[in-house]
Amino acid sequence: MSNVETMSINAIRILSADAIQKANSGHPGLPLGCASAAYELWANHLNHNPADPDWKNRDRFVLSGGHGSMLLYSLLHLFGYGNLSKEDLMNFRQLGSKTPGHPEYGHTVGVEATTGPLGAGMGMAVGMAIAESHLASVFNKDNYPVVDHYTYVLGGDGCMMEGISSEAFSLAGTLGLSKLIVLYDSNQISIEGSTDIAFTEDVQKRMEAFHFQTITVEDGNDLGAIARAIEEAKADTERPSFITIKTQIGFGCPAKQGKASAHGEPLGADNITALKENLGWPSTEPFFVPEEVYSHYKKLAEEKAETEAAWNVMFAAYCEEYPEMETLWNAYHDPDGTEKAIEACADFWKKPEKADATRNISGQILNRVKNYIPNLIGGSADLAPSNKTNMSEVGDYSKEDRSGRNMHFGVRELGMTAIGNGMLLHGGLRTYIATFFVFSDYTKPMARLASLMGIPQTFVFTHDSIGVGEDGPTHEPIEQLAMLRAMPNFHVFRPCDETETEAAWYSALTSKKTPTGLVLTRQNLTPMPGSSKEALKGGYVIDDCEGTPDIILIASGSEVELSVKAKELLSDRKVRVVSMPCMDLFEEQTEEYKESVLPKAVRKRVAVEALSDFGWGKYVGLDGAYVTMTGFGASGPAGQLFDHFGFTAERVAEVAKSL
């Protein structure tokens, strides 16, 4: 290792330690321990261009151990990404800074995914590797490997303890994602002490069982060994690779090295001084980096730019030889592509013909748009026949066929959602994932990350209420709708018929920064005469009266028809029925529009929904009432359950009269 390399690695350590100390908050252990491995990867193996962070064929790097964010910020600063300045490092963890506590996608240039919940980055990296292989199957031609890059992910013991990593890696091994390379920071320390207190399995044997190539680097500071491991990983074209790198948490700090106390607290001023002395750092000034180190990183960045320049030459020749592929490439990467595609789909807005389950209608819509949106890819957690999420005649994605567009995620809802997020983050694809609505509980942590990152993931949630019937309360969602409605930047769409289901899909597929959950029925729903594209506003008047109403019934999904029937029983009163398929979209409308639908002067209101009443208060008010679920469901035929729990037109009318 040359002196400048040693200094360049230690610069990562010093900047990280100083930033955490200045913030009086952070996690120095990982940056100190992993600096050598990160440097070797970024300097000598990772294809990236700091001058063009969005280069389509760059290698992806995900820091799954997001608490070690200063490792990533130091690398981005030293390589010259997006003018991430030394002042930005000095503002680590401060309000409004470019360097938040955990990496945030879309906030800091060069961050590929928002990480923090341990293991999430592992799942998203699997998704990125899937996206790379699928796009390669679509675009690559002889002598033109225009999609040809690796996905690297760095995480530690905590990432490997979380179940999401096992879900994701099990699928990655099954699919033989050979361009996925996992760097495992194995320091055998967690917050509470040695990992032996809770984590004694042989991780490498587990990864071998998942069909990964496993490699071990005994010394996390041996650049040669790390380099050989990465090249060995890249040489295996049949399996993903898992590189165990044995490190010491807090390396270089005499009082903290190898101890749990190095994980999540500043080193302290005296220990910072000792760290710099121990590493032979030429200055005790905070955030000092020698010019020769900056010059070294600048040279590396210029070499990285040459790699992209060579790709650009190849891509230009590719476009000249295959102009139809250039057109397709542009379509795949057009941010307005799905909206244009739906406009081209003449039968997207199809007139309802008969009663049908919205899950069936959803499946029909999916198959209507699939040929217009060639980059639409997705699947279910082993429930495609029930979720109706299989696209006909487009094939199944597999180890043998990367071109297939139907994903089989297996019974892995949490892993599926992270993988779906990773596919979307990669770019070039539009994705959807699916399961039963009650199992949205298993998707929630990664759905939350989709909302936080502002990526338009589509969730198909079927079997939306007690209408599930005979499967009983374990499979009948009650509180899930309220849970998802409570999440910022997430649209929950529960349509009442075919027209509203079309609106739901339109909203989901044209969204640019907001995930959408489509909450769909198992039982048939009758087409409603008043349903319309007004559903795109989230709430609208579906059945009105003359003049100002006395009572407003507000419902979603299967309970809209129920409310319209209840109105017929209230013929001596002026009743308005409002369909509220998406509260979130309704809240985005103007105050004037909301007032036109729900006049403040009309205080007699009833919310009707076969789920929890939580969240309806803002529309019902103190003078209103509810026809909702107050407990869990039961096992029995759906029709009997609706009667048993009081979801009848007669009961809705009675509650309305009681006001």
From TrEMBL:
<comment type="function">
    <text>Catalyzes the transfer of a two-carbon ketol group from a ketose donor to an aldose acceptor, via a covalent intermediate with the cofactor thiamine pyrophosphate.</text>
</comment>
<dbReference type="GO" id="GO:0004802">
    <property type="term" value="F:transketolase activity"/>
</dbReference>
<protein>
    <recommendedName>
        <fullName>Transketolase</fullName>
        <ecNumber>2.2.1.1</ecNumber>
    </recommendedName>
</protein>
<dbReference type="InterPro" id="IPR055152">
    <property type="entry name" value="Transketolase-like_C_2"/>
</dbReference>
<dbReference type="InterPro" id="IPR009014">
    <property type="entry name" value="Transketo_C/PFOR_II"/>
</dbReference>
<dbReference type="InterPro" id="IPR033247">
    <property type="entry name" value="Transketolase_fam"/>
</dbReference>
<keyword id="KW-0106">Calcium</keyword>
<comment type="similarity">
    <text>Belongs to the transketolase family.</text>
</comment>
<dbReference type="InterPro" id="IPR005474">
    <property type="entry name" value="Transketolase_N"/>
</dbReference>
<dbReference type="Pfam" id="PF22613">
    <property type="entry name" value="Transketolase_C_1"/>
</dbReference>
<dbReference type="Pfam" id="PF00456">
    <property type="entry name" value="Transketolase_N"/>
</dbReference>
<feature type="domain" description="Transketolase-like pyrimidine-binding">
    <location>
        <begin position="356"/>
        <end position="528"/>
    </location>
</feature>
<keyword id="KW-0786">Thiamine pyrophosphate</keyword>
<comment type="subunit">
    <text>Homodimer.</text>
</comment>
<dbReference type="InterPro" id="IPR049557">
    <property type="entry name" value="Transketolase_CS"/>
</dbReference>
<keyword id="KW-0808">Transferase</keyword>
<keyword id="KW-0479">Metal-binding</keyword>
<dbReference type="InterPro" id="IPR020826">
    <property type="entry name" value="Transketolase_BS"/>
</dbReference>
<dbReference type="Pfam" id="PF02779">
    <property type="entry name" value="Transket_pyr"/>
</dbReference>
<dbReference type="InterPro" id="IPR005478">
    <property type="entry name" value="Transketolase_bac-like"/>
</dbReference>
<dbReference type="InterPro" id="IPR029061">
    <property type="entry name" value="THDP-binding"/>
</dbReference>
<dbReference type="InterPro" id="IPR005475">
    <property type="entry name" value="Transketolase-like_Pyr-bd"/>
</dbReference>
<keyword id="KW-0460">Magnesium</keyword>
